[in-house]
Amino acid sequence: MAKKYLISSAFPKKGVNMDEVNKVLVRGVEKVLPSKKELADLMRKRKITLYQGFDPSMPSLHLGNFAGLMKLRQFQKLGHKVIFLVGDFTGMIGDPDKKTTRVQLTREQTLKNSEKWKDQVAKVLDLDGVNPAEIKFNSEWNDKITYKELIEITSKFTVQQMLERDLFQKRIKEKIPIHLHEFLYPVTQAIDSIKMVPDGVDLEIGGSDQLFNILAGRELMRAVHHKEKYVLTTKLLVDKNGDKVGKTTGNALFLDSTPENFYGGVMTFPDETIALSFELLTECSLDGIEKAVKKDSLSEKKRLAFEIVKLLWGETSAISAQQSFEKTFQKKSPEFKKEISARKTLAQTISQVIGSVSEAKRLISQGAVDVSGTTIFDPTREITSGEEIKIGKKIFIKVK
Fold first, then answer.
1. Sign of CA dihedral 31, 35, 36, 39
2. The CATH number fitting domain 335-400, selected from 3.40.50.720, 3.10.290.10, 3.40.630.30, 2.40.10.340
3. How far apart are CA 109 and CA 94, in angstroms?
4. What CATH number does the domain located at 238-331 have?
5. CA–CA distance, 301 with 227 (Å, rounded to integer)
6. 287-324, pLDDT tens digit by residue?
7. Cβ proximity of 399 and 341 under 8 Å
8. Which pTM does this prediction carry?
């Protein structure tokens, strides 16, 4: 487990380090509403209460959740009150997507999925100490809401507001049904903001793809508590095609993984996401990072993997994971066999194993890569499921 950090027992009495506040409001941040200046001024005056909600649709937190945890960690280290919210009630509805209605989960499923989250959260947030982060479940208040109260809450919104959501617009255009429980999801999530603490929270954090839901909570806060709820959205860790890194089919990274597997997973990140990964997933200085990546992307990716594993499992585990990776992949000893998911091109596919698209292209150009018994020199060759790839003499890959 990562080494604990020191937090003061109370909000600083002799002034606030505004440089640190400004860093928190810039690093990995997409948007702050109503403005960064207003939120910074509030953080200068007093200790704030903030939260981020996490959907228990899987039995482990994943890479995207980790990015959120890192932002909560930054606020906690400044002395602010942090709440990690498990959406066990909203998880039974499921945040709608653009094409299909999500399969609804039972209460038992949401609780089962989140039962090991506390140990994973403790790798990043301090759950003890003088300013402990809290873990809450939104069924605590949503279970108690009467039909009368729900009608009163929904009266604060309009149908037109809900229809502004881009995914609902897409469904209407493509004549895909929108079920009423999906339509109410932003309202249900908004209730968290006004019920979590007596007078409502000060700030909600979420990925930039959650902005619509978060703004619903801001609207409800104004109507119920006549108070501003600040909004901070974080950048999404996506590749150049807009696909979320570390969450693709067969390549998801979860916090219940082993240090070795997590290290290897980070080494599959596309080169163009290395700098952003440092910004979102580490506490490393970002000075000169773009230049360093351009100069030696493989070394920087190894440093990235090391820093992430060190934070989650400690330095000893990070050293061991790096040594394991270097022995298996870079020195190509011992013989290594692996089953991976197909990417569009040969270079993209084998980069999942060796950690770099540029290195994959170099090996292909040197004739070190065979596909189903034939040496391939074209890194853009399309790869399909069922093919076998051999790299050198000792690495064998089965494409699934």
1. negative
2. 3.10.290.10
3. 12
4. 1.10.240.10
5. 44
6. 999 999 999 999 999 999 999 999 999 999 999 999 98
7. yes
8. 0.81
